[in-house]
Amino acid sequence: MTHVVTESCIRCKYTDCVDVCPVDAFCEGPNMLVIDPELCIDCALCVGECPVAAIFEEGDVPAPQLGFIPLNVELTALWPMLSVRKKAPPDADDWAAVEHKVHLLER
Question: What domains can you pick out in the chain, each with its CATH number?
Answer without folding.
Answer: 3-83 (3.30.70.20)
